[in-house]
Write a structure and sequence with these properties.
Layout: E1 22-25, E2 30-33, E3 36-37, H1 38-44, H2 47-56, H3 62-74, H4 80-88, H5 95-109, H6 121-142, H7 156-165, H8 171-184, H9 191-201, H10 206-217, H11 225-236, H12 242-251, H13 269-285, H14 289-305, H15 312-322, H16 329-350
Antiparallel strand pairs: 1-2, 2-3
Helix pairs in contact: 1-8, 2-16, 3-6, 4-5, 5-6, 5-10, 6-7, 6-16, 7-8, 8-13, 8-15, 8-16, 9-10, 9-16, 10-16, 11-15, 12-14, 13-15
């Protein structure tokens, strides 16, 4: 039986497996995908290229990238039975519930793509292509708008904006969404990725693993922090109220979302990148309100608590400037992270071992059974 000192609450600092997909250097503030620094990828790459990198472990050639873009465009369409099912679900359901249900249902319609093993790359590409369509179909349906029409010429980032907002993004908007998708594509063994790998380690199918991941991301301790950040900004309203509101919350021991991280001991490099894009988006829109509020919140929280921002501090401001509703922020996270989830599932299939940790038992032992008629 494990000793109390052996128990690591939340599995903190426990090394559960080996992976080549993602490395986080929490002390230096670095995030690496398959050997490439996230700062370089965000500046020079695209989401499609990063997805290829995560799945195959190398950057694609020009032809491989063109083939992948073409394939993802082909896979965007919803099967008619799934579209009808989404239309039949409650219009007031949360988008994350719709996403979880739709991914699970899609497995019934595409059984060949769900089989565990190396061939699951087809399912990985299908899910990465179709998640924005699922979100767009539901969002349009609840707004009383017609279903999506095909736009195969759009990039993954531009298609996501089109699917949700029924318009093509500007060049800057498409770029910032592309950067957001790259930054959220993977982050080592976070809760949802670990859930996906646990499911895959049982030799369950890829769609089940992604359904597990979506269900895990739905929990507010993993997803949704950027929504809470925007709620904070709505409460603060103006820069001159930041000190009062933030210090008041800290005095009441309330958590300020968008700060601190289990792994990073310095600033999250994704926050560094998104801070600049939030500023550029604000300048493009002629609206630096969110950016100026967030910079002041950063100043106060760091001064009072010594905490650094994480990726969630600025992502919500970018989505809000685009006009995306807050309840779609976490589903957008899923539409990006599905590339990483599926990469980890594919890796798990290659080195399969059932993930089965041990718990320290703290209950009673050697109780004597008493027949029900003799119990007081």
């Amino acid at each position: 039986m494990p000793e109390a000192s052996d128990v690591q609450r939340g599995l903190e600092d426990v090394v559960a497996l080996e992976s080549r997909i993602c490395f986080i250097d929490g002390r230096q503030g670095r995030l690496i995908y398959q050997g490439y620094d996230i700062r370089d990828l965000a500046a020079r790459s695209t989401f499609e290229e990063v997805a290829y990198l995560l799945w195959y472990g190398r950057l694609p050639s020009a032809q491989q990238l063109a083939d992948l873009k073409s394939r993802l465009s082909e896979l965007r369409a919803l099967p008619d039975p799934l579209a009808r099912q989404i239309d039949a679900l409650p219009a007031d359901a949360t988008p994350m519930d719709i996403l979880r249900t739709a991914v699970s249902a899609l497995a019934l319609l595409e059984p060949e793509e769900t089989k565990p093993g190396a061939s699951s790359i087809g399912g990985a590409q299908r899910l990465t292509a179709v998640l924005p369509t699922i979100l767009g179909h539901f969002h349009r349906r609840r707004a009383g708008k017609p279903a999506l029409r095909p736009r195969p010429e759009l990039s993954a980032a531009a298609y996501l904006v089109y699917a949700l907002l029924d318009r093509e993004p500007t060049e800057l908007e498409a770029k910032v969404v592309d950067v957001c998708l790259i930054l959220h594509a993977d982050h080592e063994l976070n809760a949802s990725t670990f859930a996906a790998r646990v499911t895959a380690s049982t030799l369950s199918d890829l769609y089940s693993a992604v359904t597990s991941a979506i269900g895990t991301l739905k929990g507010p301790l993993h997803g949704g922090a950027n929504e809470r950040v925007m709620e904070l900004l709505a409460e603060i309203q103006s820069v001159d109220r930041v000190e009062e509101v933030v210090k008041g919350k800290l005095a009441r021991h309330e958590r300020i979302m968008g700060f601190g991280h289990r792994v990073y001991k310095v600033e999250d490099p994704r926050a560094t990148i998104l801070r600049e894009w939030s500023r550029r988006m604000g300048e493009e829109e002629g609206n630096l309100h969110y950016y100026e509020l967030l910079r002041k919140v950063e100043e106060v929280v760091h001064r009072e608590k010594g905490l650094y921002p994480n990726v969630d501090l600025y992502s919500g401001s970018v989505y809000s400037l685009l006009g995306i509703p807050p309840d779609l922020f976490t589903p957008i996270f899923a539409a990006s992270r599905v590339a990483g989830w599926t990469a980890h599932v594919l890796e798990e299939y290659q080195d399969l071992r059932l993930i089965r940790p041990t718990a320290k038992y703290v209950g009673a032992i050697d109780l004597t059974y008493v027949p029900v008629g003799q119990r007081s």
